[in-house]
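Residues pack. One example:


***
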Amino acid sequence: MKIIYFNFLLIILTFSVSAQTNQVSIVNNELGFKLQVDDKDFIINGMNWDYIPIGKNPLDANFWENSDEIIKEALKSEMILLKNMGVNTLRLYTGVPAKWIQYIYENYGIYTMLNHPFGRYGLSIDGVWIPVTDYSNPKAQKQLLSEIESLIKAYKNTPGLLMYLLGNENNYGLFWAGSETEDFPDDEKEKQRLGEIRGRPMYRLMNEAAKKIKKMDENHPVAICNGDTLFIDIIAQECKDVDVFGTNTYRGVSFTGIFNEVKQKLNKPLLFTEFGADAFNAKSNKEDQCSQAYYLIANWKEIYQNTYGKEKAQNSIGGFTFQFNDGWWKYDFDHRRNVNIHDKTPNWANQGYNKDWVSGKNNMNEEWFGICAKGPTNSKGLFTSYPRAAYYALQEVHQLNPYDHKVDLKVINKHFKKISIKKANNKAKVDTAILEKILKKKK
């Protein structure tokens, strides 16, 4: 349940593409689902990535409006770290110019899943900003489908584009209007009532958007981003033309029964558009890199175990770890406060993360989900990311390709058993010490 950023006005690009467009397809047979890029099996080792320096928030960072020189310098620093970790796909939002999707792909071999928010944080209709989207409103429907059409025209021939993603846990947006994560209502009947009244029109419109995209672009699949599996029965009825079920899922050390639930109710490939753990311990009130690595290793193990031909659900096509570096702007975002402070106040509670969960108290620290810590901003407006233990642990995780010949559950289990959190933490101590030294000098 994370806050994202995007440009509210879609940038229509005139960038001409000379390189070849990638052919992305979904294989579905008795062995399950898998993704192929240019006829080669492709597991999504993804990362949620943005570039928001300390002191900025998503609405004023405007990274892609910098000069080409500044953008290239920032990308070099970040993309080398990502590539060396084994990341092969980024989740980026509309507003990133197509030329930078191509640039990242051609220079670092990293693809992009392009995400349209689909009215998650409001919509401009007839020049008036509407903070909560009513998906049953014909004007809202027309506006969103128009944006989708413009999006596909601008990006469909972009080398490095992997797939399209619609929304960001928009089903959660049916319950609250703000950007910050909140708790759900306890009344199940009220949840289902809102699902029918507000959710069903949304999912129906997402399906219309998927049909429009596939008519305009046959080379890239379409996914939706749901908050966990809430309203999955409505999705099964209304989103038959969507190719991939994407989900932001935070269940702790295990995804529990989500693989089989999606298989039984949707029979679509499953993509984790967000999952992760924070690097701060609410009990001890201090950074806890080992705990973060522990949860992420376990999550990725299940993602690999449930891939094509592995005798389990066989519907997992990968995931996007949340997230690459810390978001200092997230606590009290709706009031735009404390962007220069790395806040230690937990935002919400999740019993699945039992290493710091206490009944009746919050334990999830939104500003500490980075697998890298964020360094201070220099005179160019750039920063350096400093890897935590989770970075080095995931570097080991992604050395295994679950589609390699003879990789079965036994091989996967053996691979993950060898990953040492202690060794990963020892590597990260060097990076942590460097950052601490820099921060000490600035005081």
User: Anything to note?
Assistant: The two ends are 34 Å apart (CA to CA). Residues 120 and 170 are 5 Å apart (CA to CA).
